[in-house]
Amino acid sequence: MPRTRQTIAVAGVGDLGKYICEELLTSSDFSVIVLSRVVHASLLAACQKSHTCKRLIPSEWIGDSETYPLKPDYYASTRDPFRKILRAQDEVEWTLFNPGWLADYFLPRGKTYISPIPDKFPVDPNGWRACIRGSGEEMQSWTCGREIGRAVVELCRAEEWVSGNLTSAADTIPLWHIENVTYVAGEWSTFNTAVKVMESHYGTFQLYYLNIVTGWLLPITHKPVEDIQFSLEMHTNNGDDDFEALELAQVEEMMIMGYMACPKEKTMRQQQKYFADLKSSDLEQLLTYADGVDFV
Ligand SMILES: NC(=O)c1ccc[n+]([C@@H]2O[C@H](COP(=O)([O-])OP(=O)(O)OC[C@H]3O[C@@H](n4cnc5c(N)ncnc54)[C@H](OP(=O)(O)O)[C@@H]3O)[C@@H](O)[C@H]2O)c1
């Protein structure tokens, strides 16, 4: 039986949103409308008033948000209040979607929609340097933006939502089963391993990175855990005097504590449940793919 074409509204389309929109547009199952900046509460209120728009994927895009819901610290104000609002209602079904780090930060500028953040992310593929926070051995997970976009499309197709659009015969008891937190991961790895993959990959294949002093090794600096903790405490205790420094310390804390690693067992289970047809690339596969295309 042919499916009805569904309309997906994407609100606040920035770098990552471009991948989600492009992947939705490649599917004949969906029409897309792009909404400009709206706040979560307005979006939920609109869904509650609507008779047909009853599913919501709010902005979450982090790591293990079930074990560490208030990390980074700024999620306590930017995400947690809305999660509470979602949990307190049952008119709109929802899932918080988490991909770990965006693997696109390992890609050269111009190959991805994701803007580089060389002072925050440990590996800078454009400046060809790395700043390892902590030991570099803490477990992380990452997924590239394109595959996140594809996963969001699969999630929109999931039977749990589709059947969830119906209510019981009495029209009162919802038959909704989507899980309230969904994870994807291209791979689990560490920043030390990522550096080795970058060196090995570009050293072999991309000679334009060759530096006469260092050869193809990534020049590495280190930031000890104590420095990050000191910065975190200092900027937290000083209030919002230097929001950028505070945000950086909070993001660095995510690295050294491994908070960005999506929980493996649940992620793998959900991969089978929602994303079984999707390819998920590890870093080496992503770099190799990026070499062969103008844009990922
Ligand atoms: N896991 C990771 O490694 C990772 C990395 C980067 C980002 N993220 C997360 O992914 C999401 C998207 O990131 P992005 O890089 O695509 O961001 P982006 O390019 O800065 O785009 C963000 C979008 O959200 C809108 N927006 C910003 N502040 C808003 C507010 N207070 N109220 C309503 N709308 C607002 C912006 O609207 P305007 O265009 O009007 O400013 C823009 O359309 C964010 O939640 C971010 O925290 C995760």
Describe, in plain words, how this protein is organized in 3D.
The protein is of the alpha/beta class and 296 residues long. It has a single domain (6-290), classed as Rossmann fold. The protein contains eleven helices and twelve strands. It has helices at residues 15-26, 40-49, 75-78, 80-87, 145-157, 159-164, 191-205, 225-237, 243-257, 264-274, 283-291; strands at residues 6-11, 30-35, 55-56, 93-94, 96-98, 101-102, 123-124, 129-133, 140-143, 181-183, 187-189, 220-223. A three-stranded mixed beta sheet has the order 6-9-11. Strands 7-8-12 form a three-stranded mixed beta sheet. It has a two-stranded parallel ribbon with strand order 1-2. Bound molecules: NADP nicotinamide-adenine-dinucleotide phosphate. NADP nicotinamide-adenine-dinucleotide phosphate (NAP) binds at residues 12-17, 37, 39, 59, 61-62, 99, 101-102. NADP nicotinamide-adenine-dinucleotide phosphate (NAP) is lined by residues 12-17, 37, 39, 59, 61-62, 99, 101-102. Belongs to the NmrA-type oxidoreductase family. Isoflavone reductase subfamily. InterPro entries: NAD(P)-bd_dom_sf (IPR036291), NmrA/Isoflavone_reductase-like (IPR051609). Keywords: NADP, Oxidoreductase.
